[in-house]
Amino acid sequence: MKLLVCIIDDFYASEVERELREEGYRMTELASTGGFLKKGNTTFLFGIEETDLENLKAALKDACLSLEVKKKRKSKTDHRYTSFLVDASHAMPFLS
Fold this sequence. Notes:
The structure is a single chain. The chain is an alpha+beta fold. It has a domain at 8-42. Helix content is 33%, strand content 29%. It contains 2 helices and 4 strands. A 4-stranded antiparallel β-sheet has the order 2-3-1-4. A hairpin with an 8-residue loop joins β2 (28-32) and β3 (41-48). α1 packs across α2 (53-71). The chain is globular and about 45 Å long. The protein starts with a strand and ends in a 9-residue tail after the last strand.
């Protein structure tokens, strides 16, 4: 099990959420700010199997690029999001 933490510009957030939900991905969405991408961001948390990683990365890229085509806006940078992959194989649920 892996945890993909994906920090994405707010411009892309709604489209990414919609397209990935349509493809069956489940995610947790957090509003975030900071100097990382220099403006408003959304952080998505995806719990995935390692075998799903390449498909998820392709879906993220496709969602961002399709929005740019729809809105006729090109990214000013080479990246649309920054992500971190964390090993979650030893994660344990909290008991209350």
